[in-house]
User: Fold these one by one.
Assistant:
Number 1:
Amino acid sequence: MNKPKVLMAMSGGIDSSVAAMLLLEQGCDLVGVTFRTYDGGQTSGCGNISAADEAAAIAAKLGIQHHVADFRQLFHDNVVCNFINEYMHGRTPNPCVLCNSTIKWGFLLKLADELGCSHIATGHYAKIVQHQGHWHLAEAADKLKDQTYFLWMLTEENLSRTIFPLGEFTKEQIRQMAAERGFVKLSQKEESQEICFIPDNNYRHFLAEHVPDFEQKCVAGDFLDTQGKIVGKHEGFPNYTIGQRKGLKVAFGVPKYVVSINADKNQVVLGDREDLYQHELVASHCRCANLELLGEGHCLARIRYRSKATAAKITVEEPSVDNLTLKINFDEAVWGVTPGQSLVIYRNGMVIGGGIID
């Protein structure tokens, strides 16, 4: 049986590089590609010119073709603009989720077709399974590195043409594999935890530089307590996110947290840590390959990447094809529900749906 011709997304980092090595060892016909998504930013990591150079060097050592795809305008229009728009409406976006669905898969699959590749592969830590005739993401063997939270927007068509070579391995095993194959320096490479196009992880500075008339739009307003009483002045709602405790620049004698943000009124509500716990939420723009799975008892739902998945009951509020809306009732209250972030729903380690928190 002939092995598939695979378009391997290469960032120059250890994960995608080892993924390429594994596919080559399995006999796949491999073509490497690195995409340019922005200028400047980090000196390493996906999306910039440095990443393209590093990936090209790895591809040369592996003896495979390497291409650079310039997605900078597409990335700006689809990811950066959404990031800015969400923050300027008092929400906290997750650009990696949108990038994966619109850039890394949306346009990479088109490029794969142009290059005659039947599949694409990435260095993500995730698995793909089939269940009741549908394609689903499934959690990786390394639960600390599992990246299904960032991949929930992928469609069944995306998954049917995707390979995740690292799904069965731990990060430590991947480092060992790189070293064993002669890539010792690569095996020791550190990872960046920042948003790729915000190198200093300071989104406020990014907004100030990229939002027209930001100084006129980000103006002082009222801090309110949970009863609606004015308790101080803030420096403009875009400077705050749900759950924020530091940087409020107002002393209360006890720790206070950002509980909610009203962008229209330029108001930021502060409260105690306990005020950030809630038992339910609504998510819109949801995706679910098999709606019947949502009604089969309890699921586990995650409201942020590093948060614990919590048992919950899912109710379909609006079954519209264009905007599937779900209501989630948690068995135990969850902390820091943040509009704009992703909700991802699991059962038995398999992703059965996801959406954007309202």
Number 2:
Amino acid sequence: MLNTAILMGRLVADPELRHTPNDIAVTSFTLAVDRSFSKSGTERQTDFIDIVAWRSTAEFVCKYFHKGQLVAVQGSIQTRSYTDSQGIKRKAFEIVADNVHFAESKRDSMANTAEGYTPAPSRMDPSPAAPAPAYTSGDTGDFEEILTDDDLPF
């Protein structure tokens, strides 16, 4: 069987570390994940997906991630059933995180303030203040230049 979920989205709130009665670290948080498609003439929709992280992953998330930050989560989908306070049976779907990764640079992350998300400048359109690294064709002596396809070893 295969049960793998990989998501990238922004944290809706700061994650908070809790501990079970057996002193196991746990945190739950929600990711705002934009859908990859939208109907013509409509805005792209966002799904809010619940994530649970345990033990060292929970501690890592709570220590290094904050509201508005872009994160990538790899884990599995789990369901659980419960009865709410009104006696109605409910089913919850959530992602149990195996790995949580930074998905943006620290500079871009700092642009996301506690008041809300501020989009960072596009990497495809660099600002004049931060020019993109340029390719130089100068000879560094580290590599042999291959002039034609006839010189390729395969």
Number 3:
Amino acid sequence: MKKVSILSLHMGYGGIEKSIVSLANVLCDKYDVEIACTYKLYDKPAFELDSRVKIKYLVEDYLPNRKEISEALSNKKVFRAIKEFIKASKILYLRRKTMIDYIKSTKADVIISTKDIFDRWLGDYGSSKAIKIGWEHNHHHNNKQYALNIIKSCWKLDYLVLVSKDLNKFYTKEMLKSRCKCVYIPNVIEKFPARIAKLEEKRLVSVGRLSPEKGYLDLLKIFNSLTEKNKDWNLDIVGDGIEREKLEKYIDKNNLSDRVKLHGFQNKDYIDKLLNKSSIYVMTSHTESFGIVLIEAMSHGVPCIAFSSAEGAKEIIVSGKNGYLIKNRNHGAYLKKIEDLIKKEDFRKKLGKEARQSVKKYTSDVVKEKWYNLIEKK
């Protein structure tokens, strides 16, 4: 049995971490899978991991201390800040040393990197006998420096896996002279739900990290306008992050606490149950490389609305067929589409049915074959 190692920064909450868990759960049916994880943020991974997958934590006694540095600086505690900066230097040293040591010592037949700095170390120190794969989830957003960094980091790898067709087309063109070959493999719906949403409850839902790029303040503003004529509709937001306090203040200020619920981080079963009793999925991200939350919502038969600025959404949503894409981050147009779906229940159900059908190409049975083919190439 071949051994597959996946290099990860941590196993906490996040889209990349969720994708790592889903991939590991799929691959362990055929391979011996190990995740080499730099930091142990929690007692167990945030997302449910198959018991056959091993995790090896590399830095056990230290965690990133950005928050501590920020607090020391904001409170003008000079000596505390100096102490935290020294600690941060040691943490970064350990992150580099332990991951390079792992890359050098692992007997894995296939090594999959999930971070640009790991890509570079894998290319420099990985065994010539192993298949070395970079796995890029983030969109460059026309940031030439970011894209150049990814290209340089992956130059010595065998393959670079991209989660969207758009990214694959871009990097294939930019890496023609590299030995590293670009491959398109989308993210996976680990379990395709048997039950689908009835789309009859007056609920909107959104899942994601509460950070600026996810645009949740925009979502609350749109929902606030929606409630002027639709006071009986509710909004559920699952996730947590640095903007939670700001969102809570907006909710309180606009008297939305009876209609908006911030659920915090939740497990997959909790989210699945919430999706099953929702009628419209709303995404307001400024950027999104793939949008795994979209395909999960659509697998439940829930039609989705997103701004076209979320590049990954454009690959998943066919506007007017399985959901809606709104151009130019136009709040008024976004609001109108929600209102249209609220008024037209039959059409809402038609979009939901098509949404579920359209994401079957992301099921584990389909996607795992693409990974199997890549892993067995050498």
